[in-house]
From TrEMBL:
Entry-linked InterPro entries: DinB/YfiT-like, Maleyloyr_isom, MDMPI_metal-binding
The protein's name: Mycothiol-dependent maleylpyruvate isomerase metal-binding domain-containing protein
Domain Mycothiol-dependent maleylpyruvate isomerase metal-binding: 12-49
One example GO MF annotation: metal ion binding
Native organism taxonomy: Bacteria, Bacillati, Actinomycetota, Actinomycetes, Mycobacteriales
Record NCBIfam families: maleylpyruvate isomerase family mycothiol-dependent enzyme
């Protein structure tokens, strides 16, 4: 179990590590589609930078403009960061890596989940190998399958037993879904493109 201080240190390390990767990208790679629907690599990077440059009250204003639609407000915020900071994403992610932002009521596991999962969203389509230390992946998996994560990630509430094949982690009851910890993280958070990488008699429930 990681303490809050250890989790914040892990977040900072993940941000710096991803910044180092982003610093190597070509213009075409920045424009490459990520695992996040229609978002490009640049969009995902901007989303990760957003809480480092935009105060929480500003997001509240965007929520009002979006009439309470979180996804729409999130997209508006991301577009704003691309417009205002599109050439600074690497330096902002690196220089402000130690910022201890947490969404209200979520705790540090939420931003750790954000950076770990979105780093995979960026790196996998580009063919870059990336994986976080096991203790961080356990925190993320516990978060996305726990009570705080279920309202954000539909698949985390699926009536299946998740089993990681590369670390000692499992959760839930029912038909089994097996895969690497990274693949489970992506599947639980709704990345349908990884379903073919999973095995077990519960996979059909995710496809449905």
């Amino acid at each position: 179990m990681m303490s809050d201080d250890e989790t914040f240190e892990a977040i900072a390390d993940e941000r710096r590590s991803l910044a180092n990767t982003l610093a190597t990208l070509t213009p075409a790679q920045w424009d490459h589609t990520s695992l996040c629907g229609e978002w490009t690599v640049r969009d995902v990077a901007a989303h990760l930078v957003a809480p480092l440059v935009i105060p929480i009250w500003r997001f509240g204003v965007l929520m009002l403009r979006a009439r309470g639609n979180f996804d729409e407000a999130n997209k508006m915020m991301t577009d704003m960061v691309v417009r205002q900071h599109g050439t600074e994403l690497v330096s902002l992610l690196r220089d402000r890596a130690d910022k201890r932002f947490t969404p209200p009521g979520r705790g540090p596991a939420a931003p750790l989940t954000d950076i770990v999962v979105h780093a995979l969203d960026i790196c996998r389509p580009l063919g870059f190998a990336r994986s976080s230390p096991d203790d961080r992946r356990v925190v993320v998996l516990d978060y996305v399958t726990g009570l705080r994560g279920r309202d954000a990630f539909t698949h985390s509430a699926a009536a299946v037993r998740w089993e990681a094949t590369d670390i000692d982690w499992r959760h839930g009851d029912g038909p089994t879904v097996r895969g690497t910890a990274d693949t489970l993280m992506l599947a639980i958070t709704g990345r349908r493109s990884v379903i073919d990488e999973l095995s077990g008699d519960g996979v059909s429930l995710l496809g449905a």
